[in-house]
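Action item from last week, closing it out:
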Amino acid sequence: MSKKVLDTFRLDGRVAIVTGASRGLGAAMAIALAEAGAKVALAARGDLDGVVKQIRAGGGGAEGFNTDLADRAAPKKLLDAVEKRFGGADILVNNAGIIRRANLLEYSDEDWDAVMDVNIRSVFVLSREFAKRLAARKAPGKIINTASMLSFQGGIRVAAYTASKSALAGLTKAMANELAPIGINVNAIAPGYMATDNTSALRADAARNKSILERIPAGRWGEPNDLNGAVVFLASDASAYVHAITLPVDGGWLAR
């Protein structure tokens, strides 16, 4: 007998890794996955204790792993630590990312390299090594990347961020083409303009805040919890036949 529809969204017995999980979008997605039944390995440079405690207080399983994905050895170290603690993972949410703002003519090589290392190189390496371990176990899995509106648009003063997020949308498709045949779904979520630390400068600028809100059909900035349904869907059996999409969660921004 096939599962009932709502049961296909459950993640009981699965382990999810969420990077950039100490706050904002990553923390919200980690909590949502835990509420759906997954044990969650939270990875970030920042303090993870608060999110871990929140998940455990709700009856979920969680462990924090201090990780700096700018360190090229970090992906393997993280996967080894998660394997030791949980016996391996089934879901990988590549959410960690950084942004550096400067006018194009003043954009430094150092800022370009820093953004590309975290936002695209670390995603590629972590996903590759994660997929290798799933293949060795002959286990299915899910990879979910956090893309951006700048996976579709150019932006201003964020050359490296735009390049990395556009590359991420392409990488999502490329990985899906090769990993779908072995039972690994690769997809991405593209958050719209969200009320997080990354957008604090935009929200503090009255003119920019007004112009952004006027373009969002929903009439508000997104909140981290607005990604909950999308991440649980893409992590669960409900999306078993969904591959290579970049799903906008943007309040209708792209429709304008």
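Closing note: Residues 29 and 231 are 7 Å apart (CA to CA).
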